[in-house]
Amino acid sequence: MNLTNSSYFHVGGVAMSNAGDCWIDVKTSASGGAELVYYKGCAGNGAIASGFKQTYYGGMDIDKSGNLVIIDDEAEDVYIYSGCAPACTVVGGPFALKGESFWGKLNFANNQFTAVDRTDGLVDVYSYSTKNISLIYSYSSGLSASLLPNGVAVNPRSKQ
Questions:
Q1: Chain CA centroid to CA 16, Å
Q2: DSSP state of 107
Q3: How far is the C-alpha of 8 from the C-alpha of 147, rounded, in Å?
Q4: 25 lies in a domain?
Q5: Average pLDDT of 19-34?
Q6: Helix (H, G, I), strand (E, B), or coil: what is residue 106?
Q7: How far is it, in rounded angstroms, from Cα 100 to Cα 73?
Q8: Distance between CA 33 and CA 35 in Å, rounded?
């Protein structure tokens, strides 16, 4: 499938629910801006989500309750949204991240959120709930900011 929308400049996060719907977090122009695009059944031209608070695009994941967990790379924070089909309701955040992170992932139990802090060359592990995201610890495992680490995976991953 090829999901497109006229608001795309760069694509950031992409998520697909167990029900088969998709969301794409996009940068809207060379100078910035962000929109969330919703695709019912992961098809069609998509609909721009309302109630989306991000100022810049970033990675996303879906928690076990079906909430979208989305990083704002410029503000260095995380919002948690319910719905977004296409109307979003903020159910958590903004929660500040320790450093500049573009990608983040939830663990299987949905009690931890892991993100790569590319300015410090660290992996940051946070406690996760819709009420709070707070740093537990960081580690490097040979990462370096000069390597510009960007992505992260968690095993076992979230159920969505």
A1: 12
A2: B
A3: 27
A4: yes
A5: 88
A6: strand
A7: 7
A8: 7
